[in-house]
Specification:
This protein is of the alpha+beta class and 97 residues long. It has 2 helices and 5 strands, in the order βααββββ. A hairpin with a 7-residue loop joins β2 and β3. α1 runs antiparallel to α2. The relative contact order is 0.21.
Length: 97
């Protein structure tokens, strides 16, 4: 089973998502962030489940959770680095993955 590591960047994205939603509804913010985290846990068993992100030369994939895209890297050793969490309305190609 793969190990999942969240980069500092991905953690900041989760905090930003939480703060944005919590301004209106702290309970919904907690549910959303928890849901994103739980969705990413499936990668431990199924690292290739996400769609391949062809704009990157690395093995970057994108897993969906509601309106969010979880970008992650499948490393050569089979472990996972979560690179970021993007709202579906954002242009993901603007970010170096």
């Amino acid at each position: 089973m793969a190990t999942i590591a969240w980069t500092e960047e991905a953690q900041r994205w989760l905090e930003d998502i939480f703060e944005y939603i919590a301004a209106d509804n702290p309970h919904a913010a907690a549910r959303t962030v928890q849901g994103i985290y739980e969705r990413a846990q499936v990668l431990a068993e199924f690292p290739d489940i996400g769609q391949r992100y062809h704009a990157s030369p690395r093995n970057v994939r994108v897993l969906l959770y509601g309106h969010y895209r979880i970008a992650y890297l499948v490393k050569d050793d089979g472990n996972i680095d979560v690179l970021g969490v993007f709202h579906g309305s954002l242009d993901i190609t603007r970010y170096q993955l």
